Amino acid sequence: MTYTSPVPVTDGHFYEGSSLELVDLTMAYGDIDVLRDVSLTVAPGTTTCIIGPSGSGKSTLLRGVNRLHEPKSGDVRLAGQSVLKQKPDTVRRRIGLVFQHFNLFPDHTAEQNVALALRNVKGLSKAESLRIARERLAEVGLAERADHRPRDLSGGQQQRVAIARALAMEPEVMLFDEATSALDPELVKGVLNLMAGLAQRGMTMLVVTHEMGFARKVADQVVFMDEGRVVESGAPADLFDRPQSERLQRFLSEVL
Ligand SMILES: Nc1ncnc2c1ncn2[C@@H]1O[C@H](COP(=O)(O)OP(=O)(O)O)[C@@H](O)[C@H]1O
Ligand SMILES: [Mg+2]
After folding, report:
1. Which residue's CA is the nearest one to ligand 1's atom 17?
2. Does the 36-106+156-163+170-255 domain belong in CATH 3.40.50.1820?
3. Which residues does the UniProt record annotate as the domain ABC transporter (predicted)?
4. Mean pLDDT, range 235-255, rounded to an integer
């Protein structure tokens, strides 16, 4: 697969991603720590991919960054400022999150789904929110599908609507949690290409993925997690071709 030709970009939009820093982040559900002292830095405009077995704490990490689940200790810094000192709504506007399941409103068109978020979160007028919604949909290659409802779109197209909805907030960082895992195989590439295009155009991205080809080609940094800790991190070629730990060697032998 190649990730060098993103879906057509009509407006040549460039992003100014902010830095994202996790400092000794520890997270728990009840008494059980599921993330322990995780530190990592995502430089502005770069992409970090997180890989690791199921249950290793990848989703929990993203939930902590976005304040969907409050960290137990440690810090998350966006552009150098602690997100823990900001309102959760502010954080979620500045940091977009795309899940495996798209959560679009079924009775709204693609354009209405994106516009609704803009009106609710940003308080924009109907006309302005629809104008921006159409721009963002064009950007993800769905200009011709703006009037379609989710049931008339493929899974890949629905996921691109969800990405357009997140982009419409003008986030400084985008988080992806297995964004292609629920898609039929033939639809995966289009979404990965779109994500690669965002990376190329300056977005700061933290991407949890099982797509090792994507991680190798697109990531500036790959982080391997196991049992709530970062086991290894580094450039894709180092991690994939010269894994140091036995755990990463075993993981790669299972997934590649
Ligand atoms: N809401 C929750 N309540 C209790 N435990 C949870 C909850 N969500 C996840 N966990 C547990 O936390 C650990 C990390 O889960 P998760 O972050 O979802 O891992 P991953 O995304 O890497 O598969 C797992 O042991 C999981 O069972
Ligand atoms: Mg997960």
Report:
1. 57
2. no
3. 20-252
4. 97
